[in-house]
Design goal:
The chain is α+β, with helices and mostly antiparallel strands. The chain has 22 helices and 15 strands. The chain has three domains: 391 residues, MFS general substrate transporter like domains (Growth Hormone, Chain: A, Up-down Bundle), CATH 1.20.1250.20; 134 residues, no CATH class; 134 residues. The strands form two sheets. Strands 1-2-13-11-3-15 form a six-stranded antiparallel barrel. Helix 3 crosses helix 12 and helix 17 packs across helix 20. The radius of gyration is 38 Å and the shape is rod-shaped.
Length: 716
């Protein structure tokens, strides 16, 4: 076997460049999904990126041809790609802090998170969570901006220090209906009280084990003269008799007290009762007994001029076995709460107060992180992601990710285009051997996309994936590519004296125009596969309860089969196939294969069945790329090879891939992967039929049949 040492560096480039990009590029769309971007947003990103490729490829192609600096730009943009990819790794997630609502269900506080319409909860995860018998601890920080929420916390969670510690007085009006004597003290009974001069309550109270005996000193100003005379300058203490509010008045003048108890004593008294800030539970007991939720007197209070805390932080203990999915919402019982002072409370709640005609359920938004149960985090995060809007995604993280993606895309586009031009330059008149050089890129891609997928799953837990190993592989192999590329020896292509004129002449050919339209069509299909095949596999895997555990391994296997059973065999014999079938027939066959491939995707219910489908990658990419690049090289006027390669690549990505990403992303977001792949399959069949008709109508009559059919005289 003879080794062509001149071609070894370009083989090494194809291998190392693809070994460096394969751990990252196939997973970037799903990585964006994990960062918190929707399919519509990802589709928008991949719509804009090829436009930059559309500009960059011919632009730098012209510069390289004009100044004969192909190799310098080739290596420079490899370095640019490395830097931009590395910076993507340090971009934080675009997600908002995970949040849930607190809701009340029959006196029990529950965590609630609802999915947006047209989005479904992951039933497998919920079923799995219901089997977790151990409690889960979650760090929670709840918004407490509404009086209703604070009222619930104060009355039912029994957190007096958070509610009444700055309240030192309570003022109200009491209606007196009876006075009795006991132990030389008069007990003045009230049958209703009025707070805020508008809300009237029955002043019930509680005493005994577990309750606080209210004993606040009050200044009473009564309309009844006997009561007023008996009280004089004394103060009466609030107390509880027969579960009703009484005022205990003790005095040395027992005769006057006895006189007070004679007959019926009624009337209104204005009461001003002192409260000890160090015993805030007394006010809490008063307000709970009276059920005076609505009165401002019982609302949480701060010192004069101060504001009540807008948030309450605590540790929530939840019971996964109580998980319930109902009407698109997930509910989990909040069993206990642990406050910063290490006290534990039972978070009871109340849905309806006696004075309310309709139920007013307390609710608030809480930021939550459940560190010891990944399933809880994933379920709540999934619900929140389903509610995300497009506008909410245009954050600083989005623009940083978008910028780095643009730079990396331009870098890759220039490197790929220049590599092909350099490869054809090295091959000379043996262009049919291009596939044998390019297949080394498929080897690198297939091996390391599979290894990366397996390792990502190995270093991850649950559906949340750790992509660190992908970035490490990218950096190591791309740096190796820079080193190997320095040894490529290539002469600049023969200069054309009028590049733009030659390219303009090229585009005046009807065959070339049809070829460009075909390039857009296959780019349209390719763009959707590149961006959303792995999304679809994640969704299909979600139909199985253990699907998340092997998603990246499966995606790695997909890449491996695409390359080793698809691309490599077809690229190896691409020259032979093109000589036998010709470019025109091969173009129609590629479109037909895309149609079959998409229709098969639309029937997937088990993600593993995608593997045999990926053999079609041999036709839809293994033959697409040699057909597209070799045809472009055949029809290029001398000295414009790099420019024409850039133009064809720009049309493929800048128009075809861009449209496929945009339309595919929007359809995927609205209708899901199954329907979208079905529609793309039908579109591919239509493109195939139209291409056959167009080629039949414009059969070549100008002596270019050989080139147009791919029957150049080069030998393998």
């Amino acid at each position: 076997m003879n080794i062509n040492k001149k071609l070894l560096p370009i083989k090494g480039h194809y291998f190392l460049f693809n070994a460096g990009t394969s751990p990252l590029v196939p997973y970037l769309s799903t990585y964006a999904r994990q960062l918190g971007f929707s399919s519509g947003t990802v589709g928008l990103i991949y719509t804009v990126l090829p436009i930059f490729g559309l500009v960059a490829k011919p632009l730098f192609g012209v510069i390289a041809d004009r100044y004969r600096i192909q190799k310098s730009l080739f290596i420079l943009f490899q370095i640019v790609t490395i830097i931009s990819f590395s910076l993507i790794y340090v971009i934080p997630e675009n997600r908002e802090s995970m949040s849930v609502e607190l809701d009340c269900n029959g006196g029990i506080t529950v965590l609630k998170s609802c999915y947006a319409p047209k989005h479904q909860a992951d039933k497998c995860k919920i079923d799995s969570l219901e089997k977790h018998t151990l409690p889960t601890t979650c760090r929670m920080n709840c918004e407490m901006s509404t009086p209703r929420m604070w009222q619930t916390v104060c009355e039912h969670w029994h957190l007096p220090y958070y509610c009444y510690s700055n309240t030192d007085i309570i003022e109200y009006k009491a209606m007196i209906n009876n006075v009795s004597l006991k132990d030389d003290c008069a007990y003045i009974a009230a049958y209703n009280v009025t707070l805020d001069d508008k809300y009237t309550y029955t002043p019930k109270c509680r005493i005994g084990d577990g309750y606080v005996d209210i004993n606040e000193p009050c200044t009473l100003n009564c309309a009844d003269k006997k009561i007023s005379a008996a009280i004089g300058s004394e103060r009466a203490n609030m107390t509880c008799v027969d579960k009703m509010l009484n005022y205990r008045l003790c005095s040395n003048d027992t005769v006057q007290l006895a006189e007070l108890a004679k007959g019926t004593t009624t009337g209104e008294c204005s009461a001003s009762c002192d409260l000890d800030k160090h015993t805030p539970w007394r006010l809490m007991e008063i307000c709970e007994g009276w059920e005076a939720d609505v009165a401002s007197t019982c609302h949480p209070k701060t010192a004069a001029g101060g504001h009540f805390p807008s948030n309450l932080s605590f540790e929530g203990i939840i019971k996964p076995t109580t998980t319930l999915l109902e009407h698109g919402c997930v509910y989990i019982q909040l069993h206990e709460i642990k406050l910063p002072d290490d006290t534990t409370r039972i978070p009871y709640c109340s849905g309806k107060a006696l004075y309310e005609n309709t139920s007013v359920i307390f609710n608030t938004s809480c930021q939550i992180t459940c560190g010891d149960n990944i399933l809880v985090n994933e379920i709540f995060q999934g619900a929140q992601d389903s509610r995300a809007t497009e506008m909410s995604q245009f954050t600083t993280q989005f623009w940083l990710f978008f910028l780095m993606m643009i730079i990396s895309w331009v870098g890759q586009a220039v490197v790929v285009t220049f590599a092909d031009a350099i490869c054809f330059n090295l091959l000379g008149d043996k262009m049919s051997q291009y596939g044998k050089q390019r297949l080394w890129g498929s080897v690198g891609w297939g091996i390391f996309s599979l290894i990366t997928g397996v390792l990502i799953d190995h270093f991850s837990e649950g559906a949340y994936k750790n992509y660190t190993i992908a970035f490490v592989f990218m950096f190591v192999f791309m740096m190796g590519d820079v080193f190997v590329s320095c040894f490529i020896k290539t002469e600049s292509t023969k200069m054309s004296l009028n590049i733009l004129s030659d390219v303009g002449t090229l585009l005046s050919s009807i065959h070339t125009v049809v070829f460009m339209i075909w390039t857009i069509a296959v780019g349209f299909s390719t763009g959707f596969v590149w961006q959303f095949l792995f999304w679809h596999l994640e969704d299909v895997s979600g139909l199985s309860c253990d699907g998340a555990e092997y998603t990246k391994t499966l995606q790695g296997l997909v890449s491996a089969i695409q390359t080793f059973l698809g691309e490599i065999p077809f690229m190896f014999v691409s020259g032979y196939i093109l000589r036998k079938l010709g470019h025109v027939n091969m173009m129609s066959l590629v479109l037909f294969a895309f149609g079959v491939r998409f229709i098969l995707y639309s029937f997937l219910t088990n993600a593993w069945w995608v593997l045999p489908i990926e053999i079609l990658q041999g036709v839809t990419y293994g033959m697409l790329y040699p057909t597209m690049t070799s045809y472009a090289n055949v029809v290029s006027p001398p000295g414009t090879e790099t420019t024409v390669q850039g133009l064809v690549g720009a049309v493929f990505e800048g128009l075809g891939v861009s449209l496929g990403s945009l339309i595919g992303g929007r359809l995927y977001q609205s209708y899901g992967g199954w329907k979208t792949f079905e529609w793309f399959g039908i579109a591919s069949f239509i493109f195939c039929i139209l291409h056959i008709i167009a080629q039949h109508v414009i059969k070549d009559k100008n002596g270019l049949t050989g080139a147009a059919q791919g029957k150049e005289n080069a030998t393998e």
